[in-house]
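Might I ask for a little of your time on a matter of protein folding? Here, with my thanks, is the record as I have it:
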Amino acid sequence: MGDDPLYVFHGRRRVGRISADPLKFVYDTTWLSARDSFALSVALPLRPTSFDEADVRAFFFNLLPEGQVRRRLAGRLKISEGNDYALLAAVGGECAGAIAVLPTPADANPESGRERDDFDEHAYDALSDDDITQRIAMGGALSSAAGESGVRLSLAGAQDKLPVYIDASGNIFLPKGQAASTHIIKFENRDFKHLAVNEAFVLRLAEAVGLPCVRSTLRRLGRSNALVVERYDRLRAGARVERLHQEDFCQALNVPAERKYEAEGGPSFAQSVELVRKHSSDPLADVHAVVRWQIFNAAVGNADGHAKNLALLHTPTGTRLAPFYDLVSTRAYPRVDRHLAMHIGATSDPDQLTAKDWSRFATDLGVGARYVRDTATQVLSAIGDALIPTVRALEKAFGRKDFLRSAVVPGIEKCTRRVTASLKAQS
Protein backbone atom coordinates (compact mmCIF):
# COMPACT_ATOMS: atom_id res chain seq x y z
CA MET A 1 0.00 0.00 0.00
CA GLY A 2 2.99 2.26 0.56
CA ASP A 3 2.23 5.81 1.62
CA ASP A 4 -1.31 6.03 0.23
CA PRO A 5 -3.78 7.86 2.50
CA LEU A 6 -5.94 6.03 5.01
CA TYR A 7 -9.55 7.06 5.59
CA VAL A 8 -11.33 7.03 8.93
CA PHE A 9 -15.01 6.05 8.96
CA HIS A 10 -17.83 6.02 11.45
CA GLY A 11 -20.22 3.51 9.92
CA ARG A 12 -20.72 4.60 6.31
CA ARG A 13 -19.65 8.19 6.94
CA ARG A 14 -16.15 9.46 6.43
CA VAL A 15 -14.62 11.20 9.45
CA GLY A 16 -11.19 12.19 8.18
CA ARG A 17 -7.95 11.21 6.51
CA ILE A 18 -4.53 10.03 7.69
CA SER A 19 -1.52 10.79 5.49
CA ALA A 20 1.84 9.04 5.80
CA ASP A 21 4.48 11.55 4.74
CA PRO A 22 4.36 13.59 6.84
CA LEU A 23 2.22 11.62 9.30
CA LYS A 24 -0.92 13.69 9.93
CA PHE A 25 -4.64 13.39 10.54
CA VAL A 26 -7.32 15.88 9.53
CA TYR A 27 -11.10 15.82 9.99
CA ASP A 28 -13.23 16.16 6.84
CA THR A 29 -15.16 19.44 6.61
CA THR A 30 -18.41 17.51 6.13
CA TRP A 31 -17.80 15.71 9.45
CA LEU A 32 -16.96 18.96 11.20
CA SER A 33 -20.19 20.57 9.99
CA ALA A 34 -22.48 17.65 10.87
CA ARG A 35 -24.76 18.12 13.88
CA ASP A 36 -24.06 14.63 15.22
CA SER A 37 -20.30 14.60 14.71
CA PHE A 38 -18.01 13.87 17.65
CA ALA A 39 -14.32 14.09 18.41
CA LEU A 40 -12.46 10.79 18.06
CA SER A 41 -10.61 11.54 21.29
CA VAL A 42 -10.39 14.18 23.96
CA ALA A 43 -6.85 14.53 22.59
CA LEU A 44 -8.23 15.04 19.03
CA PRO A 45 -10.84 17.78 19.42
CA LEU A 46 -12.93 18.80 16.42
CA ARG A 47 -11.01 21.40 14.44
CA PRO A 48 -10.23 22.15 10.78
CA THR A 49 -6.44 22.09 11.17
CA SER A 50 -4.46 18.85 11.07
CA PHE A 51 -2.93 16.85 13.93
CA ASP A 52 0.74 15.92 13.81
CA GLU A 53 2.69 12.67 14.08
CA ALA A 54 2.62 12.41 17.89
CA ASP A 55 -1.18 12.74 17.92
CA VAL A 56 -1.62 10.13 15.18
CA ARG A 57 0.66 7.64 16.90
CA ALA A 58 -0.98 8.09 20.29
CA PHE A 59 -4.52 7.54 19.04
CA PHE A 60 -4.52 5.47 15.86
CA PHE A 61 -1.47 3.29 16.45
CA ASN A 62 -2.78 2.53 19.95
CA LEU A 63 -5.48 0.49 18.17
CA LEU A 64 -2.90 -2.13 17.12
CA PRO A 65 -1.82 -5.33 18.87
CA GLU A 66 1.42 -5.52 20.82
CA GLY A 67 4.14 -8.03 21.64
CA GLN A 68 4.08 -11.56 20.27
CA VAL A 69 0.61 -11.10 18.73
CA ARG A 70 1.92 -8.17 16.72
CA ARG A 71 5.00 -10.12 15.61
CA ARG A 72 2.86 -13.01 14.38
CA LEU A 73 0.41 -10.66 12.68
CA ALA A 74 3.19 -8.77 10.90
CA GLY A 75 4.82 -12.02 9.83
CA ARG A 76 1.63 -13.39 8.35
CA LEU A 77 0.95 -10.15 6.47
CA LYS A 78 4.60 -9.81 5.34
CA ILE A 79 4.79 -6.37 6.94
CA SER A 80 7.69 -5.10 9.04
CA GLU A 81 6.79 -5.37 12.71
CA GLY A 82 7.57 -1.69 13.29
CA ASN A 83 5.51 -0.43 10.34
CA ASP A 84 2.48 0.87 12.25
CA TYR A 85 1.01 2.61 9.23
CA ALA A 86 0.98 -0.50 7.04
CA LEU A 87 -0.40 -2.66 9.86
CA LEU A 88 -3.21 -0.17 10.47
CA ALA A 89 -3.99 -0.16 6.75
CA ALA A 90 -4.19 -3.96 6.77
CA VAL A 91 -6.23 -4.64 9.92
CA GLY A 92 -7.90 -1.39 10.99
CA GLY A 93 -11.45 -2.31 10.01
CA GLU A 94 -12.94 -3.65 13.27
CA CYS A 95 -11.17 -1.92 16.15
CA ALA A 96 -11.96 -0.80 19.65
CA GLY A 97 -14.58 1.92 19.59
CA ALA A 98 -16.79 3.04 16.72
CA ILE A 99 -14.36 3.81 13.91
CA ALA A 100 -12.78 1.92 11.03
CA VAL A 101 -9.55 2.83 9.26
CA LEU A 102 -9.65 1.86 5.59
CA PRO A 103 -7.39 2.36 2.58
CA THR A 104 -10.20 3.47 0.24
CA PRO A 105 -12.13 6.78 0.23
CA ALA A 106 -15.90 7.08 0.08
CA ASP A 107 -15.89 8.57 -3.42
CA ALA A 108 -13.88 10.83 -5.66
CA ASN A 109 -15.24 13.95 -3.97
CA PRO A 110 -14.82 13.70 -0.18
CA GLU A 111 -16.77 16.93 0.33
CA SER A 112 -19.92 15.57 -1.33
CA GLY A 113 -21.25 14.32 1.97
CA ARG A 114 -22.23 11.00 0.42
CA GLU A 115 -22.15 7.88 2.52
CA ARG A 116 -20.36 4.77 1.34
CA ASP A 117 -22.68 2.36 -0.43
CA ASP A 118 -20.23 -0.57 -0.57
CA PHE A 119 -20.17 -1.44 3.13
CA ASP A 120 -21.29 -4.96 3.95
CA GLU A 121 -22.32 -4.83 7.59
CA HIS A 122 -23.76 -8.36 7.69
CA ALA A 123 -20.86 -10.50 6.43
CA TYR A 124 -20.01 -13.28 8.88
CA ASP A 125 -18.31 -16.67 8.54
CA ALA A 126 -19.38 -19.42 10.94
CA LEU A 127 -16.67 -20.65 13.32
CA SER A 128 -16.83 -24.00 15.08
CA ASP A 129 -14.82 -24.71 18.21
CA ASP A 130 -12.55 -26.89 16.04
CA ASP A 131 -12.01 -23.97 13.66
CA ILE A 132 -10.89 -21.78 16.55
CA THR A 133 -8.54 -24.36 18.06
CA GLN A 134 -6.97 -24.89 14.62
CA ARG A 135 -6.38 -21.15 14.35
CA ILE A 136 -4.71 -21.13 17.75
CA ALA A 137 -2.50 -24.05 16.66
CA MET A 138 -1.50 -22.11 13.55
CA GLY A 139 0.31 -19.64 15.80
CA GLY A 140 -2.48 -17.42 17.09
CA ALA A 141 -6.17 -16.85 16.43
CA LEU A 142 -5.93 -13.16 15.54
CA SER A 143 -2.91 -13.51 13.27
CA SER A 144 -4.43 -16.57 11.55
CA ALA A 145 -7.46 -14.51 10.54
CA ALA A 146 -5.32 -11.71 9.11
CA GLY A 147 -4.93 -11.81 5.38
CA GLU A 148 -8.15 -13.71 4.77
CA SER A 149 -10.38 -12.07 2.21
CA GLY A 150 -12.50 -9.36 3.80
CA VAL A 151 -11.10 -9.82 7.31
CA ARG A 152 -9.75 -6.63 8.94
CA LEU A 153 -9.61 -7.13 12.70
CA SER A 154 -7.43 -5.36 15.26
CA LEU A 155 -7.35 -5.42 19.05
CA ALA A 156 -4.81 -3.69 21.26
CA GLY A 157 -2.83 -5.64 23.83
CA ALA A 158 -0.34 -8.49 23.91
CA GLN A 159 -2.72 -11.42 24.57
CA ASP A 160 -4.02 -13.53 21.71
CA LYS A 161 -7.72 -12.78 21.28
CA LEU A 162 -10.30 -12.75 18.53
CA PRO A 163 -13.26 -10.41 17.94
CA VAL A 164 -16.31 -12.51 17.09
CA TYR A 165 -20.08 -12.26 16.71
CA ILE A 166 -22.07 -14.60 18.96
CA ASP A 167 -25.76 -15.09 18.29
CA ALA A 168 -28.53 -15.84 20.79
CA SER A 169 -27.91 -19.58 20.47
CA GLY A 170 -24.20 -19.26 21.28
CA ASN A 171 -22.99 -19.82 17.71
CA ILE A 172 -19.74 -18.03 16.88
CA PHE A 173 -19.02 -16.08 13.68
CA LEU A 174 -16.00 -14.23 12.31
CA PRO A 175 -16.84 -10.67 11.17
CA LYS A 176 -15.88 -9.71 7.62
CA GLY A 177 -16.23 -6.54 5.63
CA GLN A 178 -17.71 -3.91 7.95
CA ALA A 179 -19.61 -6.38 10.13
CA ALA A 180 -19.32 -5.72 13.85
CA SER A 181 -18.28 -8.15 16.56
CA THR A 182 -20.16 -8.56 19.84
CA HIS A 183 -17.61 -10.47 21.92
CA ILE A 184 -13.89 -11.01 22.34
CA ILE A 185 -12.51 -14.50 22.91
CA LYS A 186 -9.29 -14.48 24.92
CA PHE A 187 -7.14 -17.60 24.76
CA GLU A 188 -4.73 -19.36 27.08
CA ASN A 189 -1.08 -18.33 27.09
CA ARG A 190 1.65 -20.93 27.23
CA ASP A 191 3.78 -18.60 29.37
CA PHE A 192 1.06 -17.98 31.96
CA LYS A 193 -0.76 -21.07 33.14
CA HIS A 194 -4.57 -20.96 33.32
CA LEU A 195 -4.71 -17.27 32.39
CA ALA A 196 -8.34 -17.48 31.23
CA VAL A 197 -9.43 -19.04 34.54
CA ASN A 198 -7.41 -16.45 36.46
CA GLU A 199 -9.08 -13.56 34.64
CA ALA A 200 -12.55 -15.09 34.89
CA PHE A 201 -12.10 -15.43 38.64
CA VAL A 202 -10.68 -11.95 39.26
CA LEU A 203 -13.43 -10.35 37.15
CA ARG A 204 -16.06 -12.17 39.21
CA LEU A 205 -14.32 -11.17 42.41
CA ALA A 206 -14.25 -7.52 41.30
CA GLU A 207 -17.95 -7.70 40.46
CA ALA A 208 -18.68 -9.18 43.88
CA VAL A 209 -16.76 -6.29 45.44
CA GLY A 210 -19.00 -3.87 43.55
CA LEU A 211 -16.77 -2.76 40.68
CA PRO A 212 -18.45 -2.29 37.28
CA CYS A 213 -16.88 -4.96 35.06
CA VAL A 214 -17.30 -6.48 31.63
CA ARG A 215 -19.49 -9.56 31.42
CA SER A 216 -17.56 -12.75 30.77
CA THR A 217 -17.78 -16.52 30.86
CA LEU A 218 -15.43 -19.45 30.40
CA ARG A 219 -15.72 -21.67 27.36
CA ARG A 220 -13.93 -24.94 26.77
CA LEU A 221 -12.01 -25.06 23.46
CA GLY A 222 -10.33 -28.39 22.89
CA ARG A 223 -8.09 -29.09 25.87
CA SER A 224 -7.96 -25.55 27.18
CA ASN A 225 -10.23 -22.80 28.45
CA ALA A 226 -11.00 -19.51 26.78
CA LEU A 227 -12.58 -16.40 28.25
CA VAL A 228 -15.51 -15.00 26.28
CA VAL A 229 -15.97 -11.30 27.02
CA GLU A 230 -19.01 -9.29 25.98
CA ARG A 231 -17.90 -6.05 24.34
CA TYR A 232 -19.02 -2.96 26.21
CA ASP A 233 -18.47 -0.84 23.08
CA ARG A 234 -21.09 -2.75 21.11
CA LEU A 235 -24.86 -2.54 21.49
CA ARG A 236 -27.39 -4.89 19.93
CA ALA A 237 -30.29 -3.08 18.28
CA GLY A 238 -32.57 -5.79 16.99
CA ALA A 239 -30.67 -7.63 14.27
CA ARG A 240 -28.06 -4.86 14.06
CA VAL A 241 -24.99 -4.26 16.17
CA GLU A 242 -24.23 -0.62 16.91
CA ARG A 243 -20.70 0.51 17.71
CA LEU A 244 -20.17 2.80 20.70
CA HIS A 245 -17.11 4.98 20.67
CA GLN A 246 -14.42 4.57 23.30
CA GLU A 247 -10.80 5.49 23.90
CA ASP A 248 -8.34 4.07 26.36
CA PHE A 249 -6.50 6.38 28.71
CA CYS A 250 -3.28 6.28 26.69
CA GLN A 251 -5.21 7.54 23.68
CA ALA A 252 -6.98 10.20 25.74
CA LEU A 253 -3.74 11.39 27.34
CA ASN A 254 -1.82 11.32 24.06
CA VAL A 255 0.61 8.62 25.19
CA PRO A 256 1.92 5.90 22.82
CA ALA A 257 1.38 2.25 23.77
CA GLU A 258 5.07 1.64 24.44
CA ARG A 259 4.82 4.05 27.39
CA LYS A 260 1.66 2.66 28.99
CA TYR A 261 3.40 1.92 32.32
CA GLU A 262 4.13 4.80 34.69
CA ALA A 263 7.71 3.57 35.17
CA GLU A 264 8.24 4.10 31.42
CA GLY A 265 6.96 7.66 31.54
CA GLY A 266 3.32 6.68 31.11
CA PRO A 267 0.26 8.08 32.87
CA SER A 268 0.17 8.18 36.65
CA PHE A 269 -2.92 7.34 38.64
CA ALA A 270 -3.37 11.01 39.53
CA GLN A 271 -3.38 11.91 35.82
CA SER A 272 -5.94 9.16 35.20
CA VAL A 273 -8.21 10.46 37.93
CA GLU A 274 -7.93 14.00 36.60
CA LEU A 275 -8.91 12.74 33.14
CA VAL A 276 -12.06 11.18 34.62
CA ARG A 277 -12.88 14.34 36.58
CA LYS A 278 -12.55 16.50 33.50
CA HIS A 279 -14.46 14.39 30.98
CA SER A 280 -16.93 12.10 32.77
CA SER A 281 -20.56 13.16 32.79
CA ASP A 282 -20.75 11.71 36.33
CA PRO A 283 -17.30 12.47 37.75
CA LEU A 284 -18.10 11.70 41.41
CA ALA A 285 -19.26 8.15 40.67
CA ASP A 286 -16.51 7.45 38.15
CA VAL A 287 -13.68 8.84 40.29
CA HIS A 288 -14.90 6.71 43.18
CA ALA A 289 -14.98 3.65 40.92
CA VAL A 290 -11.47 4.15 39.56
CA VAL A 291 -10.04 4.76 43.05
CA ARG A 292 -11.58 1.47 44.18
CA TRP A 293 -10.12 -0.18 41.05
CA GLN A 294 -6.60 0.89 41.98
CA ILE A 295 -7.01 -0.34 45.56
CA PHE A 296 -8.41 -3.61 44.20
CA ASN A 297 -5.35 -4.02 41.94
CA ALA A 298 -3.05 -3.69 44.95
CA ALA A 299 -5.15 -6.11 46.99
CA VAL A 300 -5.30 -8.87 44.36
CA GLY A 301 -1.74 -8.42 43.12
CA ASN A 302 -2.55 -7.14 39.62
CA ALA A 303 0.61 -5.57 38.23
CA ASP A 304 -0.98 -4.90 34.84
CA GLY A 305 -3.38 -2.10 35.73
CA HIS A 306 -1.91 0.39 33.26
CA ALA A 307 -3.52 3.23 31.32
CA LYS A 308 -4.53 1.05 28.37
CA ASN A 309 -6.65 -1.01 30.75
CA LEU A 310 -8.84 2.00 31.53
CA ALA A 311 -11.15 3.64 29.00
CA LEU A 312 -13.69 6.37 28.46
CA LEU A 313 -16.93 5.25 26.82
CA HIS A 314 -18.65 7.93 24.74
CA THR A 315 -22.40 7.47 24.29
CA PRO A 316 -25.24 9.74 23.13
CA THR A 317 -26.09 10.37 26.81
CA GLY A 318 -22.59 11.33 27.89
CA THR A 319 -19.06 10.13 28.60
CA ARG A 320 -18.50 7.59 31.35
CA LEU A 321 -15.70 5.45 32.69
CA ALA A 322 -15.92 2.16 30.81
CA PRO A 323 -16.51 -1.10 32.69
CA PHE A 324 -13.27 -2.59 33.98
CA TYR A 325 -11.56 -5.28 31.94
CA ASP A 326 -8.26 -7.23 31.79
CA LEU A 327 -8.24 -7.91 35.54
CA VAL A 328 -5.78 -10.67 36.48
CA SER A 329 -3.91 -11.65 39.63
CA THR A 330 -0.42 -11.50 38.12
CA ARG A 331 0.96 -12.39 41.56
CA ALA A 332 0.07 -16.01 40.70
CA TYR A 333 2.99 -16.00 38.24
CA PRO A 334 6.32 -15.71 40.09
CA ARG A 335 8.16 -14.50 36.97
CA VAL A 336 5.94 -11.42 36.63
CA ASP A 337 7.21 -8.28 38.34
CA ARG A 338 4.95 -7.63 41.32
CA HIS A 339 5.16 -3.82 41.04
CA LEU A 340 1.93 -2.02 40.18
CA ALA A 341 1.66 -0.30 36.80
CA MET A 342 0.68 2.92 38.61
CA HIS A 343 2.11 4.02 41.94
CA ILE A 344 0.25 4.43 45.20
CA GLY A 345 1.99 7.38 46.79
CA ALA A 346 5.71 6.87 46.22
CA THR A 347 5.44 3.08 46.05
CA SER A 348 4.59 0.61 43.30
CA ASP A 349 5.20 -2.54 45.38
CA PRO A 350 2.01 -3.50 47.27
CA ASP A 351 4.14 -5.37 49.82
CA GLN A 352 5.96 -2.18 50.76
CA LEU A 353 3.04 0.23 51.17
CA THR A 354 3.22 2.52 54.20
CA ALA A 355 1.05 5.11 55.92
CA LYS A 356 2.96 7.84 54.09
CA ASP A 357 2.09 6.28 50.74
CA TRP A 358 -1.63 6.32 51.50
CA SER A 359 -1.42 9.91 52.71
CA ARG A 360 0.43 10.97 49.58
CA PHE A 361 -2.04 8.99 47.46
CA ALA A 362 -4.88 11.05 48.94
CA THR A 363 -2.96 14.30 48.42
CA ASP A 364 -2.12 13.42 44.81
CA LEU A 365 -5.80 12.80 44.08
CA GLY A 366 -7.00 15.89 45.94
CA VAL A 367 -9.17 13.88 48.34
CA GLY A 368 -9.18 13.38 52.09
CA ALA A 369 -7.00 10.77 53.78
CA ARG A 370 -10.04 9.46 55.63
CA TYR A 371 -11.91 8.92 52.35
CA VAL A 372 -8.99 6.84 51.01
CA ARG A 373 -8.69 4.85 54.23
CA ASP A 374 -12.42 4.16 54.45
CA THR A 375 -12.66 3.23 50.77
CA ALA A 376 -9.68 0.89 50.96
CA THR A 377 -11.05 -0.73 54.11
CA GLN A 378 -14.38 -1.35 52.38
CA VAL A 379 -12.69 -2.87 49.32
CA LEU A 380 -10.44 -5.13 51.40
CA SER A 381 -13.33 -6.27 53.58
CA ALA A 382 -15.46 -7.04 50.51
CA ILE A 383 -12.63 -9.07 48.96
CA GLY A 384 -12.28 -11.09 52.15
CA ASP A 385 -16.01 -11.81 52.23
CA ALA A 386 -16.23 -12.72 48.53
CA LEU A 387 -13.00 -14.64 47.97
CA ILE A 388 -14.03 -18.22 48.81
CA PRO A 389 -17.68 -17.89 47.68
CA THR A 390 -16.39 -16.68 44.29
CA VAL A 391 -14.05 -19.68 44.03
CA ARG A 392 -16.92 -22.03 44.86
CA ALA A 393 -19.25 -20.39 42.36
CA LEU A 394 -16.68 -20.72 39.59
CA GLU A 395 -15.99 -24.34 40.51
CA LYS A 396 -19.70 -25.13 40.51
CA ALA A 397 -20.24 -23.57 37.11
CA PHE A 398 -17.10 -24.74 35.32
CA GLY A 399 -15.64 -27.60 37.35
CA ARG A 400 -12.92 -27.68 39.96
CA LYS A 401 -10.10 -25.21 39.31
CA ASP A 402 -7.24 -26.26 41.60
CA PHE A 403 -5.06 -23.48 40.22
CA LEU A 404 -7.28 -20.94 41.96
CA ARG A 405 -6.91 -22.52 45.38
CA SER A 406 -3.21 -23.32 45.02
CA ALA A 407 -1.87 -20.16 43.36
CA VAL A 408 -4.39 -17.34 43.00
CA VAL A 409 -6.20 -17.32 46.34
CA PRO A 410 -3.06 -17.59 48.54
CA GLY A 411 -1.47 -14.70 46.66
CA ILE A 412 -4.54 -12.51 47.10
CA GLU A 413 -4.77 -13.38 50.79
CA LYS A 414 -1.12 -12.39 51.24
CA CYS A 415 -1.59 -9.10 49.37
CA THR A 416 -4.73 -8.15 51.26
CA ARG A 417 -3.03 -8.82 54.62
CA ARG A 418 -0.13 -6.52 53.77
CA VAL A 419 -2.32 -3.77 52.33
CA THR A 420 -4.58 -3.99 55.38
CA ALA A 421 -1.54 -3.70 57.67
CA SER A 422 -0.40 -0.55 55.89
CA LEU A 423 -3.82 1.01 56.39
CA LYS A 424 -3.92 0.14 60.10
CA ALA A 425 -0.55 1.78 60.55
CA GLN A 426 -2.10 4.97 59.22
CA SER A 427 -5.16 5.05 61.47
Confidence is low (pLDDT under 50) at residues 106-118. The chain has three domains: 6-102, 123-230, 244-426. The first strand starts at residue 6 and ends at 10.
